[in-house]
Design a protein that fits this description.
alpha/beta, Rossmann fold, 13 helices, 7 strands, 54% helix, 13% strand
């Protein structure tokens, strides 16, 4: 069953194109499908920031992730080109789904990323119109895509897990790209159904392993004098989800160990 699921979502092609960074994004996506249950137990869930040079495949990766829950497209918003009311309406309309913020700061006015802080805990935000003030409670997850890390303060940065795609594999692996492109949402949606069946295991694993990984990261980063506890918690959550993914697909240790190393590097950058 594990091999069937792995083959159904073309995991080996994902690995060939995106490597361990792609698996980190996939593990975060696994948690995103049960984010409110995770927030109930963990109080928060990180934003995913995907940074990559133009043409490096971030949009292609997001399309792939969307297919895994039976969707051919994903919700997106350019925060620099929308009003606050428009942005919050987009969040409200997303429900429990993920929404992608496309950073276009090079082509538009800057955006105050402080606005998204409350979304980390699934808290509410309000906006006013001419006739009323509306309050929006965010039940979904937020992905930020950009060519380079967005310019924000440490408080916002500490709420993100920044996955940096290398990009070069898009040109080097046309066969694997074609395989992922040909995968349909109907075929890939078996993954989302498997996640639903395994929700109890997912939550158990996250609750069990997050404190273990926080301790391991704290001990493994002695060169950081005061590691950011929120940042370590973010990475520990996604590390636990790498284990969930590994169990679900029956992955060999190399496919588990390399993404965990990526997350350890990300954790070392929270200062």
């Amino acid at each position: 069953m594990q091999n069937e699921l792995r083959n159904a979502i073309r995991f080996d092609d994902l690995w060939a194109v995106y490597g361990p960074e792609g698996v980190v994004a996939l593990a975060w996506w696994v948690g995103a499908q049960h984010v409110n249950a995770i927030r109930d137990n963990q109080n928060s869930y990180p934003f995913l920031e995907i940074t990559a040079p133009a043409g490096s495949g971030s949009s292609f990766l997001l399309s792939y992730l969307s297919k895994l829950i039976g969707k051919e497209t994903y919700r997106c918003c350019s925060p620099q080109h929308a009003t606050k009311a428009g942005r919050l309406r987009s969040l409200e309309n997303a429900g429990t789904e993920s929404i992608v913020y496309l950073d276009e700061s090079a082509q538009a006015e800057s955006f105050d990323w402080d606005e998204i802080k409350a979304l980390y805990n699934g808290d509410s935000a309000s906006y006013g119109t001419r006739d009323e003030t509306r309050e929006v409670t965010f039940k979904g997850t937020l992905i930020i895509t950009a060519n380079k890390p967005v310019e924000c303060n440490d408080a916002v940065r500490s709420r993100m897990v920044d996955v940096r795609l290398k990009g070069k594999n898009l040109l080097d692996k046309p066969t694997h790209i074609d395989a992922l492109h040909q995968l349909t949402a109907a075929e890939a949606s078996v993954f989302g159904r498997a996640l639903d069946r395994n929700e109890e295991h997912l939550l158990f694993t996250v609750n069990k392993l997050v404190p273990v990984y926080i301790e391991a990261l704290t001990e493994g980063l002695p060169f950081i004098r005061d590691p950011d506890p929120r940042g370590l918690h973010n990475c520990a959550q996604v590390m636990a989800l790498v284990n969930v993914l590994s169990d679900l697909l029956g992955l060999a240790n190399e496919y588990r160990a390399a993404p965990l190393e990526v997350l350890q590097t990300i954790a070392s950058e929270y200062v």
